[in-house]
Amino acid sequence: MQIHNLSKTPSILNTFMSELRDKTVQKDSMRFRRNIERIGEIIAFELSKSLQFESHRIETPLGASETVLHHSDIVLCSILRAGVPLHNGLLNYFDAAENAFISAYRQHKHDPESFEIVVEYLACPSLEGKTLILADPMLATGQSMVATFEALKPFGTPKAIHLVSVIGAQPGIDYVTKAFDADVQLWIATVDDELNDKGYIIPGLGDAGDLAFGNKLQQ
Ligand SMILES: O=P(O)(O)OC[C@H]1O[C@H](OP(=O)(O)OP(=O)(O)O)[C@H](O)[C@@H]1O
Ligand SMILES: O=c1cc[nH]c(=O)[nH]1
Ligand SMILES: [Mg+2]
């Protein structure tokens, strides 16, 4: 897997990231969602440089302009529920994309430290020969990303796969690297070193779904 860690080059992205992490600023859920969306927009721009482009001739009112435009074969798939603001940010730029949504949540059966990923809702167009962008803001253990990809397999074989995330933990990135082919690309805003015993990214930002949409009752 090819990893593009955008934090390696300091940019305005750091401002949005620090607001997501800051335990006071992140309480403003509208700002929290918008910052994830803004990071989605930045990643969309960076990722777009790796797409296939072809020549187009555009007629202006006064003449003709030659330019290159990317193929519109993108399927944007996000993992509910924290994936929604990231999806919106990517879709702001890839506005012609087809869209897929999948639910994945951690089900704690016996104790708070062990869980399995449950995939339930899935709405997806054909992926055959398309460019799949699979987005989830948090890549912690990596199990949601891998379980989601397994669930998408009956929908066809994409010609290219891009994973998009905001914060990853190194153990989760190692897990995902083993599960995906070498030509899959991961676009990630930053990477933290570790997970705690509940599978949360340290220092991370806390629970992205709850910060974006409010607390939920545990199932
Ligand atoms: O890499 P993993 O260990 O699988 O963890 C990451 C997952 O955890 C979060 O979702 P969560 O299950 O909290 O659901 P939510 O989006 O509904 O809050 C996050 O959005 C990822 O989907
Ligand atoms: O740190 C984490 C890990 C999983 N899900 C989150 O929202 N945060
Ligand atoms: Mg989830």
TrEMBL record:
Which CDD domains would you find in this protein's record? PRTases_typeI
Which Gene3D superfamilies does the record associate with it?
Answer: 3.40.50.2020
Q: Does the keyword Transferase apply?
A: yes
What keywords tag this UniProt record? Glycosyltransferase, Transferase
Molecular function terms, GO-annotated: uracil phosphoribosyltransferase activity
Superkingdom per UniProt: Bacteria
Could you tell me which SUPFAM superfamilies the record lists for this protein?
Answer: PRTase-like
Q: Which InterPro entries match?
A: PRTase-like, PRTase_dom, PyrR_bifunctional
Q: What class of enzyme is it?
A: transferase
> Where in the numbering of this chain does the Phosphoribosyltransferase domain appear?
12-214
User: Does Cell membrane show up as a keyword for this record?
Assistant: no
Q: What is its EC number?
A: 2.4.2.9
Stated name of the protein = Uracil phosphoribosyltransferase
| Species this chain originates from | Winogradskyella bathintestinalis
